[in-house]
Specification:
By secondary structure, this protein is α/β, with parallel strands linked by helices. The chain has helices spanning 4-16, 30-39, 49-58, 76-79, 92-104, 128-140, 163-184, 202-207, 217-220; strands at residues 20-24, 43-46, 64-67, 85-89, 109-114, 148-154, 193-195, 212-215. It has an 8-stranded parallel β-sheet with strand order 7-6-5-4-3-2-1-8. The N and C termini lie close together (12 Å). It binds pyridoxal-5'-phosphate. Pyridoxal-5'-phosphate is lined by residues 24, 26, 47, 68, 156, 198-200, 214-217.
Length: 223
């Protein structure tokens, strides 16, 4: 069951803020994705490789598939031929493997680096120091990394009711984004993406300059 009204409202809110709505459909049946597709939704986000591959195999080819989960290196090959954007790159080794599999597939794959902004222990991602370290490896090997394009940052805020804290965390992502843009991507027109905001905090994320919100439960109901 999808919530059509929520979809319409979110699509309008995102568009008004200049952002894209990614419908996070993990664990939801193909019929639910078809229902949103019929309304006009084209960007879908999935967390699990196997599930993504299965859904992509039976759904229309013009869907833009976002991989938003934790990606294991040995699974990159399964999504490399078709994935639109990989959100959670959190190591240089993973970036290298994406480049390798993209080359095999004859593609350039767009990726986001995952910045750790939450206070929780369980969330994946890199801190600022680790991102700068990754960028120095990237700069040193850029000539060999022609099949990946770093397009921005992805982050998840702490699950809390404290809106001031959430704002601060999204603000931090926006700051690190600007720092990287100035330092490494000043002349790159593709370094534009701030993927932040979920069902509980997407409004705060849009306020903080999100360009891509990832919303699941508001559209598809609780998992
Ligand atoms: C599941 C998930 C979402 C969507 O969460 P909702 O609270 O259901 O909107 C967004 N981003 C990531 C990385 C997720 O794993």
């Amino acid at each position: 069951m999808v919530n059509e009204k929520a979809w319409k409202d979110l699509t309008e809110e995102a568009a008004a803020a200049g952002a894209v709505l990614v419908a996070v459909s993990k664990t939801k049946p193909v019929a639910d994705l078809e229902a949103l597709y019929a309304l006009g939704q084209r960007d879908f986000g999935e967390n699990y490789v196997q599930e993504l591959v299965e859904k992509a195999g039976v759904l229309p080819a013009d869907i833009r598939w976002h991989f938003i989960g934790h990606l294991q290196r040995n699974k990159v090959k399964h999504i490399a031929p078709f994935v639109h954007l990989i959100h959670g790159v959190d190591s240089f080794g993973l970036l290298l493997e994406i480049n390798r599999q993209a080359a095999k597939a004859g593609r350039v794959i767009d990726v986001l680096l995952q910045l750790y902004i939450a206070e929780e222990e369980s969330k994946f991602g890199l801190n600022e120091t680790e991102i700068v370290e990754l960028m120095s490896y990237y700069e040193a090997q850029r000539a060999q990394l022609q099949h990946v394009r770093i397009c921005g940052l992805m982050g998840m805020a702490t699950a809390t009711d404290d809106t001031a804290q959430i704002r601060a965390e999204f603000g931090k992502l926006a700051n690190v984004f600007q720092y990287l843009k100035d330092a490494y991507f000043a002349s790159a027109d593709y370094f534009t993406v701030k993927s932040m905001g979920m069902s509980g905090d997407y409004q705060l994320a849009l306020d903080a300059g999100s360009t891509l919100i990832r919303v699941g439960s508001l559209l598809f109901g609780a998992r």
